[in-house]
Each structure stands twice: as structure tokens, then as C-alpha cells.
Amino acid sequence: MFKQSILTRSLVAAFGSGLALFGASALAQETQRVEITGSAIKRIDAETSVPVSVIKMETLKAQGVTSIEQIMSSISAVQMTQSSSQQVGAGTGGAAFADVRGIGASKTLVLLNGRRIANNAIDGAAVDLNMIPFAALDRVEVLRDGASSLYGTDAIGGVINFITRKDHAGGSITLGVDRPQSKGGNAESANVGFGFGDLSKNGFNVFGFIDVARTQPIAGDERPFNARFPGGLSPTPFPANYYQDGSVTGNPAAPDCNDPSYLVQAGDGTSCFIATSKFVDYTAKTERKSAMLRGSLALGSDHTLAMEWFGTQNKATTRIAPVPYGTLWMNRTNADGSLNPYYPGNGTVASNITLDPNYTVANMNPRTGVVLRPGFIIVKWRALAGGQRTNISTNDQQRLLASLDGTFANWDYQTGVSYNENKIKEDVTGYSDGNAIAKAMADGLINPFGAQSAAGAAAIQAALLGGNLQNHKGKVTTVDAKASRELGDWLGSGRKVALAIGAEARKEDFLSASNPPVAEKLVASTGVDPTAVSAGSRNVTALFAEINIPLLKTLDVTLAGRYDNYSDFGSTTNPKVGIRFQPTKELLIRGSASTGFRAPSLYELNASQSYTNTGTVSDPINCPDGKTAISGKSTALNCKVQFQRLTGGNTNLKPEKSKNMTFGLVFEPTANFSVGADLWWVRLQDTIAALSETTVLGDAATFAQYIKRNSTGDLSIDGFSCPGATCGYLDLRQQNLGGTNTNGVDISASLKLNLGASGNLNLGLNGTYVTKYEYQDFAKGPWNQNVGVYVGLAPIFRLQHTATARWAVGNFTLGGAAHYKSGYVDQDPSNTVNAYATLDLFMGWKPMKGLDLTIGVNNATDREPPYSNQGEVFQANYDPRFADPTGRKYYARASYSF
After folding, report:
1. What's the Rg (C-alpha) of the chain?
2. How big is the CA angle at 132 (ends 660 and 70), to the nearest 5 degrees?
3. How far apart are CA 432 and CA 367, in angstroms?
4. Average pLDDT per consecutive 10 residues, the chain (898 residues; last block may be shorter)
5. Apex CA 851: angle with CA 848 and CA 855, to 5°?
6. Angle between the 454-463 and 434-442 helix axes, to the nearest 10 degrees?
7. Phi, psi of 601 (to 5 degrees)
8. Where does 489-626 show beta strands of DSSP type E?
9. How many other C-beta atoms can be found within 10 angstroms of the C-beta atom of residue 92?
10. CA 380 – CA 244 distance, rounded (Å)
């Protein structure tokens, strides 16, 4: 009963709303053996001892889904997704990652047709979801359990297997448009598919898909909730803040700070902040192109030879606020002795603080070419006249695969050789030569408080810089083979033992390098080390086996194990045991226990040692309240400023290790109703990460070893930029930290109602409730409780779920999906982030054979993202990892097959 009713009806029919429920795919007929993600054994009974969710692409496309990101947002087991919008200000290459169980995207294995593809080349942590050939997909299988015993590294939180069509005949054209109700975010998409030949009749099949999509950005001033302060405030504004000794800061727009350039009162009555969020894109401008070509040739009746190529390019363009200059110098007098007309108090600009006309500092070491004269001031200025800084990431992915599948001597076998490559090019515009700006300011050419003269405007334009900043490349070459067969009824259960064996060998290469001619001019404003070159390679070999033993007619035990050997750190062995018990046709009980591992990435091992900038933070010792420095220290240099941090790899890293358990049941009292629950536990140790600056500065006593001060006890030096360890800095290099413990329950329900002449109604629910999530910042450290509270890098949601409904009658379909994420205590615990709930609605119509039309609305209630004061990612006032700033969005799709 479970093979047909739960799998087919519960997951295909009830899942007709477009969201995954529990169980594995029943796409095959009763007489066909199929391989399910999480098992290497081909079998008729697709419901195994591990929980697998299946997402059919034809239904999701009817709902208006046009990207893998949107699919991941509908899976309750995915706690966090890095979206393309996080490219804004972060240099992620426009990547999108999935994070099952919230333990890190690097611990969710992403496969394409059961095989690995190259990870994102910037840090090698995980596969960029934007690189998957969306138009060619048939379904997505999500294994919500650890699977290192079969797949090796990374498969700790779960496995997401994107499965494309294996053959296709005829043609298809799909067009789509998206139009948000508010300004920005318009999108268009189109894909074309073709195929000819039939393997069973003609002995061959060739098919291909071409897919293009583009999305316009949502700018920082195109949504009203950007005015929800204090998020996105910077002490480096226009008009500029200025000071001499650092104890009192002035600004000609203070105290009102109501200048039209997005100023906000600083609270001291003499200076201003700028709302940089007004200049920061909410979402990126993206252009995605992908193509796939596959040819299959039948070799007799038992073997199939196939060649497959896919390639994807994703180009993401993002804009952030104009360049800030936290330390510039303005002289009171020019070189000829005349007064600088822009100096506060000289006539053009009034000074709202007292300045010393004879002020000077011994041993001051300003930028090259800058001459300081008595009475100079230090200026914190943002170059609005230079325009926004722009990052353009071009991400190219491709895979070439040759495979041979078939049956030989009663063994079902699969072999393959593949080459995978990911390349990312990062270009920038709108940055400036800091030395040229500093000299022009000191020479009296630039007015940091108002409109520029012709000479000032020319100086700013002449200092603008851009070009190719960094390049990254990752390669994976793999040879794999596996086979499975039934061995016989060993125990007299009436069912046969099944065995699978396999082997894999792969070579991984990684190279990431700055482009020195551009990077060395932009190091002060981008934080990119111009000499940084990170490179590494390794060889991996593996053997694995799996055996399914029917102890009774109703009870199976599955044993699996895998041995991996890495050329750079050694070997690891990971076993797994699974139990499947079906005492009645209405009830299925299942469970598993396993160990897992994640090998340190080539980036984590070999990344170059570089000094970059932190976010805007305060020194917890010199500025304990985050607002005012202690006696003898400068507020301007210790409070709400950027310090240096040392980042880089660590060749002494050990693998992360895990223990996983699941226990669940699926109950189906009738053919039209089912309910399921799976308890899960994940235990991690030796997690690899870099401590966050907020964690280190949040407990200066515990993390004192990572806070490196200069000879004066500071993290910065007044008046000039100092390289490396001559300044103070935070040591935030990669290391093996502490452990992570998390557990919870996945729940599902589905109901199918036959309404007679009124059609069919399918209802579905899938959700995840997290009972515990705790982690350590360092080995043997205290446990941080993370459920429902923002601790460290992110919160963990107590509850996520999606409820769906789909009504089909005649040629019409109506449907909806309601998504929910529970609230949590924010990064600043004085704020509580509200729960986030959205509703999507759609209608489909088939006016003629081959033609499908769909219209719909996402976020029908126009729900704004809840306010968040997080500082982990660049966008302010909300968290782009968990909420969508687009608002209500209408869409239309048309698809014609022939």
C-alpha cells in the first residue's frame, strides 16, 4: 500500500500544490527498479529507511517558480538560505546556498543526477544553486538525513539531488514575466526545449534545453521600510563629520541633521550619521543563461551510453553606498598661506564646535603626498559625487559527463567520468584612489560639506577606479562506478537480500587570486589584499557498500559504510544502519543511525593570510558602552568604527565529524489521507569556521587571545593607515572550533478529496519544529542556545511550515501556499523580530492541447520583511536570508509543448 498510495498519491497528488511532503518518489511502475537518493540499491519498493522529500518541477513551475532559490524557501528542513541578494557588499559571486538543519551550507551536499558538481570557486564551501540547469529539471529529491556512508564529505545535514530529464522528444517553449506591485524587481524568463529519438524504438535520444532569465534590482530607496532606523547608519556622512582631538565631533548640518542626503541625528548634538541603506540595493540585478545537451545511445537491450554537457552563467550586479573616507585631513590654510574656503569657520562653512587654529600632532604620518599645517582637522567624508560602488560578478559553471549504465550478469551498474568547473570573475566600479582623494582634500580642492567647484569635481572624477578585482577557479574531475543486485532470500522472509558496491576517485583543484594592478589601488576601500593568492589541490579515493537484509516479511535492516582517503589529511570511515518496519499496510516505522564527516575545503586549508576591514564595531575595552571612549582614548577611533581583521586558511584543520539519528513513522488509514513525523538528531564536533568579530568583541575576556592590540593598547592608530600587525587587529582565521547539537521533528500531512463533478481538492502540510540548537564558539567552551534567538551568525527558527491547497476541475486549477517562520530575539536583544508569514496564490488554465497558462501572485498580502537590527550581512533593517523585500508580486507564465 505504501508503494502506491503514500508515495504516489501523498507525494505526487497531494504535493500537486508544489511543496515536498515526506516519503520518496514513486515515479516508476511496480515492475521497475528505481534508485532513491540516500540509497545505492535499485529496488521496487521506493520507501526506504530514510526520509526523502520529492518536489515535482512541473507543479512548481505552474506556481511561478523560476529559480532554485525559490524552491529552497519552500522546504521546511532548510533553516537558512544564502540568497543572491547577499552579493550586495559581500563579494559572494552572486551565489545562493541551501542550509539543511541550519548547521552550515557546507554540510548540505548538492548533487546533479546523483553526482557531484564543482563547488562555488570563491571559498569552495558549497554548490551555488544558481548554477543548476533549472529548465532541464524533472524533480528534486531532498534527503533529510546524513549520508556520508554513501556520498562521503558534506552530506551531514542532508542531500539535495537535482534530477534532470533523461530523455525528451518534441519541443517546448515557456515564457514568463514577473511584475512586483512596487518599483524595482521586474523579471522575465524564457526557455526552449527540443528532443528527438526514442531509446526503446530508435535506439537513441538527443535532447537539449536553453534557459534565460533576467531580474532588475530593487534599489535601496525603492522600499519604504528602509527608513526603519537604526539599521544602516554610518559615522562617515556627507556633509562630513570632522574633529581634531577626537573627543568632540562636528558637522555643519548638526544638530538637526535634516540635510537631504539621508542624514540622521547622531545623538551628541554636534555630529550626524548617514543612512547608507538608502544607497544599498535590496536585490541584485541578475542575468542567468543556462543550456544542457544530452545524447543517449542504446547498446543492445541492456546498456545505455550517454554524453551530457551543461553550462550556466549567472551575472550579478550590485550597488552599495559611495566610498567612505574615515580618515582624511583638511588644512586650515593653503600652501600659499591663504585660508581654505571650505575649512569650518573660514567663512563658507560655519563651525559648530571649537577648533584650535594651532592644532598639531607630533609624529603624524598621513597618506603619501599630504602635507599637514597647524590647525588641520580630521574629516570623515563620503564621496557622494563619485556615485555608488558597484560589484559585477560573472559566475560560469559547466560539467561534461560520459556515462555507461545497464545490466550485466544480474547486476544493475552505473559508471561515469566527469569534468566539473566553476569560474568567477569579480569586477568593480565606483571606487577611488584614496591617496589622490586625501591629497586633493588637504590641498583645499574638495569641499566635504557642500557642492563641489569645477576643480573639486574634476579631482573626484580623476580619482575614480575600477576594473577586474579578483578571479577564482575550481575544478573537480571524477571517475565513479557502482553496481547493485539481489542475492537471494537468505532468511526465508519471502524477500531477497540486496547488495550495492561502489568506488569513486576524484581530483580537486582550487585557485583564487587578486588582480594586483587594480586591487593594490583599492585595498583601502575594498579590503582585498592585492597580493592574495590562494591555491590547492588534492586527490580523493573512496569505496562504499550497502546491503539490505529482510529479517522478516515486515522488517528490513540496511547496513552501509564508506571509506574515504584524502591526500591532504588522511582517511575516514563512516558506517550507517537503517531499519524499516511495516507491521500493517497502514503503518510504516523507520529509523537510522550513522556517522558523517566534512573535509576542510581547499579554501579553508590554503586561503592566503590577509588583513581586511571589519564591519562598524566598537572596542569593548576602550569603548565599553559602544558610544563614548574611556578617559584618555578617542571616541572617534574606538567607537562605531572599522578595525582590521586577519583572515586566511589553516593547513592544520581536521575534518568536521558528526553523528546522525532519525526515527519516524508514516500512517495512512485510507488511500486519500496520510500523516508522517520524523524525529532527527545531529551532533557535530570540530566545526570549521572563523570566529565572527561580533562574537570576539562581545566577550573580550574569553576571546582575549584573538584581540591583538598595538603598543598603545589600541586596535587602530590615529591619523594614518597602518598595514598588518603594526596596527591592532582581530585574528579571525579558520580553525576547528567547538561542537553543535541540534534536534527536532519534521511533520507532514496530506489529504485528497474527490468532489465528483466539482473536481479534486488536495491539501498538504510540511513543517519542521526545532527543539534544540546549541553550539560552542571554541572547543570545550560554553554552549550557546540558538533556537528562537540570534546568537553568533544567525537565529534558528523554532517553527517553519508551509500549508498548501490545490483544486483542479476540468481545464482549470486554483491553488495557494502559505509560508510561515516563527519570530526570534534579534542580534540586539532589545528587539524581537516578528514572525514572517506570506501567502501565494495561482490559477492555471489549459485552453488547448499542449498549451498551459498560469497567472498568480506571490506575497498576496504584501507582507513587509520584519524589522531586524542584524549586522551580519550588508542590507540593513531586515535580514535578507529569511525574508523577501519584493512585496506583492504578480506573474504570468505560458508554456506550449509540441
Report:
1. 30
2. 75
3. 14
4. 36 33 31 72 69 82 74 81 58 77 91 91 85 87 92 93 89 94 95 92 94 93 73 85 90 88 88 88 92 95 95 92 90 92 89 92 78 94 91 94 95 96 94 90 94 94 92 96 93 92 96 89 76 91 96 94 94 95 94 95 88 83 91 85 86 94 94 94 93 86 89 67 66 91 95 94 94 90 93 91 93 93 94 95 93 94 92 82 92 93
5. 110
6. 160
7. -70, 160
8. 497-514, 533-550, 555-566, 570-584, 587-598, 610-613
9. 28
10. 11
Walk across the sheet containing 272-275 and list its strands: 233-234, 272-275, 263-265
Cα–Cα distance measured from residue 132 to residue 118, given in angstroms and rounded to the nearest whole number: 11
> Amino acid identity, residue 554?
T
CA dist list (Å): 104 to 424, 473, 510, 687, 799: 22, 22, 21, 10, 18
Q: Which amino acid is at 450?
A: G
835: which 3 cell numbers? Answer: 514572525
pLDDT at 1: 42
How far CA 423 is from CA of 107, 120, 473, 506, 741, in Å, comes to 22, 8, 4, 19, 35
Q: 551 with 32: CB under 8 angstroms?
A: no
Confirm if 86 and 150 have CB atoms less than 8 A apart.
no
Q: Of 633, 881, 834, whose CA–CA distance to 92 is shortest? A: 881
Identify the bridge partners of residue 212 per DSSP, sorted by sequence position. Answer: 190, 289
Q: Which residue, 160, 76, 78, 80, is CA-closest to 748?
A: 76
- Phi first, then psi, for residue 523 (nearest 5°) are -60, -35
The Cβ of residue 809 has, within 10 Å, a number of other Cβ atoms equal to 13
Q: Do 329 and 305 touch, CB atoms closer than 8 A?
A: no
Q: What is the DSSP letter of 545?
A: E
Q: Would strands 158-164 and 137-143 be described as parallel, antiparallel, or unpaired?
A: antiparallel
CB-based burial label for 138 (10 Å; 0-12, 13-18, 19+): middle
Instruction: Name residue 689's beta-bridge partners.
Output: 735
Residues, the chain, total? Answer: 898
H/E stretch holding 72 reads helix 68-72
Inter-residue contact 172 to 897 (CB < 8 Å): yes
167: its cell numbers: 530523455
Distinct helix (H) and strand (E) counts, the chain:
9, 44
Look at residue 277 in the predicted model and tell me its pLDDT: 82
Instruction: Say how far apart CA 378 and CA 634 lie, in whole Å.
Output: 13
The DSSP annotation for 178-236 comes to: EEESSSS--EEEEEEEEEE--TTTTSEEEEEEEEEEEE--B-TTSSGGGG-TTTTEES-
The set of cell numbers assigned to 302 is 541492456
Q: Give the separation between CA 520 and CA 514, rounded to whole angstroms.
A: 9
Question: How many Å apart are CA 551 and CA 582, to the nearest integer?
Answer: 12
Instruction: Select from 654, 559, 746 the least CA-distant residue to 145.
Output: 746
Residues 6+ apart with CB under 8 A from 339: 332, 333, 346, 347
What's the N-to-C CA distance of the chain in angstroms?
A: 36
| CA dist., res. 851 & res. 274, Å (int) | 53
pLDDT of residue 38: 84
Q: Give the type of residue at 2.
A: F
Cβ density class 32-63: b for 16+ within 10 Å, e for less = ebbbbbbbbbbbebbbbbbbbbbbbbebbbbb
Phi, psi (5° rounding) for residue 75?
Answer: -100, 115
The pLDDT score that the predictor gives to residue 25 is 31
Q: How far apart are CA 885 and CA 522, in angstroms?
A: 31
Give the separation between CA 882 and CA 220, rounded to whole angstroms: 18
By C-alpha distance, which of 703, 667, 626 is closest to 869? 626
Q: What span, in angstroms and rounded, lies between the C-alpha atoms of 717 and 730?
A: 14
* CB-based contact 887:182 (threshold 8 Å): yes
The model's pTM: 0.86
592608530: which residue's cell? 717
The torsion of the CA quartet 340, 343, 346, 349, rounded to 10 degrees, works out to 130
CA distance 512 to 519: 13
